[in-house]
Amino acid sequence: MTQIDTSVPHSARIWNYWLGGKDNYPVDEAAGDAYTAVFPGIVTIARGSRAFLGRTIRHLVQEAGVRQFLDVGTGLPTVDNTHEVAQRLAPESRVVYVDNDPLVLAHARALLTSTPEGATAYEPIDLYEPEAIVEAAGKTLDLTRPTALILSGILGHVADYEQARDLVRRLLAGLPAGSYLSLNEGSRGTDPAYEQAQDAYNETGAVPYFLRPVERIEAFFEGLELVEPGVVSVPLWHPEPGAPAEPIGQHGGLGRKP
């Protein structure tokens, strides 16, 4: 078992703290509180990203008939994980989670519950090994059938933009026509306070996360057919009736592989 260092803050645990989870330590709460002191809106961004993920999964199950999900860069389990949302609507849904963080691995059993009709699996593989990810996913998923690739707030950790785009292309290359990409990332151009806070965080020596201009997030969907309304600030993507729909510095979309 890999030793988990609880003396330094960890981005997945900080995110978990902002989402109201319990899998974090005082050092993470301190780092999370320090960030929210500078930019309180980060909690809205964390929860907005999570809510967007849930809405895209519901759309995929109910509107697109997708029953297979490949969630790469899973992060720590919180409420309404991918398999929970999908299997609530379609119990036969099959989900593969991929994350090579030892902390996430330690909590993976929370991701491995499943309906009897469906299946969930966890593969501890690095994001930078896309062909290995697809091969491992094929043990649980039928990769001749449409599969939804989920990349939720993970590509900002890839410093080189062209490398990030290449990883998306290579993951999608292993999935058949009719598959989908659900992607959302921190963005520039909407909230200067968020940009300042994140840039300052990146200079602390913590694992950096790079915000990107919206057009660069749009380019991750190159070659795909975007579901309306395209790539937008996440609260504006198929908002729930009555939900606040103020733009935030997090953009995402859903695209279909033709």
Automatic annotation (TrEMBL):
Q: Which GO terms describe its biological process?
A: methylation
Would the keyword Secreted be found if you checked this record's keyword annotation? no
Name the InterPro entries on file.
SAM-dependent_MTases_sf, SAM_dep_MeTrfase_SAV2177_type
Which top-rank group of organisms is this from? Bacteria
| Keyword Lipid metabolism belongs to the record | no
GO MF annotation, one: methyltransferase activity
Coiled-coil regions listed in the entry: none
Sorted keywords for this record are: Methyltransferase, Transferase
What Pfam families does the database record attribute to this sequence? Methyltransf_19
Name of the protein: SAM-dependent methyltransferase
